[in-house]
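call fold target=Protein-glutamate O-methyltransferase CheR
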Amino acid sequence: MDRQSREAFEIKWLLEAIYACYGYDFRDYAGASLKRRILNRLEQSDCRHISDMVGKMLYDSDFFELFLQDMSITVTEMFRDPKVFLRLRERVIPRLKTYSRINVWHAGCATGEEVYSLAILLHEEGLLEKTRIYATDFNNHSLEIARKGIYSQELVKYQENYLLGGGKKALSEYYRHNYDAVIMKAFLRKRITFAYHNLTRDQVFAEMHLIMCRNVLIYFNQALQNKVLGLLINSLVHKGFLVLGDKETLEFTSITHQFDDFEPGAKIYRKTAALPKANQDEA
Ligand SMILES: C[S@@+](CC[C@H](N)C(=O)[O-])C[C@H]1O[C@@H](n2cnc3c(N)ncnc32)[C@H](O)[C@@H]1O
């Protein structure tokens, strides 16, 4: 067996052990970045081979927690990709205004900056009071930060993103200074429920009008992307909106025919009533 095949075998073994022991399924995460993270963890551990990490993983839950943090890339920011927020404001908000109640799901919300950005936008458009935002992630550490809504002073630098995203006031209207940090205002936090949810194994969130799942699918292989997209589509109402990250697409996925490319430049899709492909051929 050559080195590469041996490494592939060890990685498979490690992921099976994690799944069996902790229920976290990384078996369908995208290969290259998965391998990079495993090798990084190996380098920082006292193990010689990936296979040595299997036993350590099984008996040392702290070691697993470190691995979990490695696997959870939590990079995010306020009004990340401002054009997406601008398009949401201009094109999606007018449609959401027709509903008496609005449900939003942020799947893979990390530390919550994107969630507060949307809450601000909804507030400025007069919709926050009739909206419930569910924001989920499988990283409890990030969720804790998101729940508190306390960030470093660095947050002030996102004023420009906020304005490019169509912001109508000043970002500083939405937080107050708290020693050397800033804290998001309570009226925003009140409309958001942060909760643990693992996209690879947990259930749908029903009746969502808008789902933001940005910069999460890139970490999954095609099979897992299809599975998770199935979960997202089942969570959306008819004509509901799905927003993906800049480098993500519904093209070539199993559900592409069930969505309109509503705002191609901003990766905003809208669920249609289209039949599954096999039935379309018969219809
Ligand atoms: C790069 S962040 C994206 C944050 C935010 N959506 C944004 O675009 O700024 C990716 C997030 O996906 C989460 N994630 C990865 N796999 C997940 C899974 N199986 N279930 C739930 N969340 C997951 C990670 O913990 C991380 O917080």
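return ok
The chain has eleven helices and ten strands. Residues 72-76, 80, 108-110, 114, 137-139, 142, 198-200, 214-216, 219, 245 surround S-adenosylmethionine (CB under 6 Å).
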